[in-house]
Amino acid sequence: MKRFTKEENSWMYYDWANSAYSIIISTAVFPLFFKAAATNAGISPSDSTAYLGYTIAIATFILAMLSPILGTIADYKGLKKRFFTFFFALGLISTASLAFIPSDQWLLLLIFYTLTAIGSSGSNVFYDAFITDVTTEDRMNRVSSRGFGLGYIGSTIPFLISIAIIVLAQNEVLPISTTIASKIAFLITAIWWGIFTIPMLKNVYQKYGIEREQKPLINSFKRLGKTMKEIRKYRALFLFLLAYFFYIDGVGTIITMSTAYGSDLGISSTNLLIILFVTQVVAAPFAILYGRLAERFTGKKMLYVGIGVYIIVCIYAYFLETTMDFWILAMLVATSQGGIQALSRAYFAKLVPKENSNEFFGFYNIFGKFASIMGPLLIAVTAQVTGNSASAVFSLVVLFIIGITILMFVPEPKVDSSHTISA
């Protein structure tokens, strides 16, 4: 395989930049910070887990409703980068703002967390769609997987710095409170995210799109309506979206709710942060490995493998009792979480018309985001009704089984390597 081009590398480094948000804000530090703030306010652990689940559901619902509309408008030449930049800026500013919100204002924390989630996920809609602009179909598995691999590697650096500051503060080595240490982690995330997004802003451009026309907003809604009516005509694409809807729900829920679940099991914050750090380290080579194995065995077969691992994860999660159990669970997740997301992105990119990539990635996002509503809501409702989230985690296995069953009917995309990319 030829060396990666400047456009490919610049695109992949946004995974490196944005993954700091994913691990520190979405998965590790903020959920623990919020649960501590909620506990201090007299909220029970199960209720605080539920409130976090509801917040994730609200944020994903908002973005799911916006994504197809914004994606359709962004298919006009020259607009993709503008939309990407707007959502990136929203996420960056909101993340930095978390550091300045009083820790006793738990509701305000959730509001700004919602804004960070909309900014991060919104920028990813357009970032994912840019894959059709930066590489060719025969290189998509490798490029997408390497992007996720870089993301895991890159996220470990600010995460390790943040863990060190928090642990040193907890052990009174640093003369600051754990609250201040967590807020420093939020600022580190924003700085890292901003600096390493510069290559993406500088070197990646929209190559495919439709020509601008009069009344672009009205015409965008017309095109969106037409696509919604005709999407079943794209049989392979429609079936893949349906399969993706189910299996990615379980993936996203396990990622976003893992620390809250671990905390409810009684695992200490320090142990959770260390486990998540090691998970990122282990996930990096496995994400790249999935891309290489997909070139040998096809992306679809490797998706089967990834979904199969997650089914095992859901079953094992039901029986968790000790910190060692959580370690085993985390390592299982690490083997497949990056690979399944990377290959899903590449698989879908091969199915979509390039000039309408934003519009179709808007549907990709809406299916993913609406799926992400189900999982957290299931966790939230079950946690409140039963006082035990283990049963809800176990129930996610049904979603993976449905997803893999539908995926069996999706044909392999035809790979086109006829067009070239700039060096």
UniProtKB/TrEMBL annotation:
Protein's name in the database: MFS transporter
One Pfam family of this chain: ATG22
Bilayer topology annotation: Multi-pass membrane protein
GO molecular function, one term: transmembrane transporter activity
PROSITE patterns: MFS
Annotated ranges, domain Major facilitator superfamily (MFS) profile: 236-423
A Gene Ontology cellular-component term: plasma membrane
Chain ranges passing through the membrane: 20-38, 50-71, 83-101, 107-127, 148-168, 180-201, 236-260, 272-290, 302-320, 326-348, 360-383, 389-410
Matching CDD domains: MFS_YxiO_like (cd17482)
Keyword Membrane attributed: yes
Keyword annotations of the record: Membrane, Transmembrane, Transmembrane helix, Transport
Subcellular localization(s) per the UniProt record: Cell membrane
Keyword flag Membrane: yes
